[in-house]
Design a protein that fits this description.
Largest sheet: none
Structural class: mainly alpha
Number of strands: 0
Strand content: under 5%
Helix content: 40-55%
Number of helices: 3
Number of domains: 1
Order of helices and strands: HHH
Distance between the termini: 31 Å
Oligomer: single chain
């Protein structure tokens, strides 16, 4: 089983329930202590994470 960030399941459930948009999930990537990783964003949304600087 892969290890996930502390809030991965909460973010995933809220996204799947329609409570979080992709933009909201995107905004959580890299946020210290409450965020998720770029890889987790991809798992949750099914789309690649593209940093805004690119």
């Amino acid at each position: 089983m892969a290890l996930h960030s502390k809030n991965f399941l909460m973010v995933k459930r809220n996204y799947e329930a329609g409570l979080f948009s992709k933009d909201q999930v995107y905004a959580l990537v890299g946020v210290p202590r409450t965020g998720i990783t770029a890889a987790e964003y991809e798992q949750i949304t099914g789309e690649p994470y593209v940093p805004e600087n690119d």
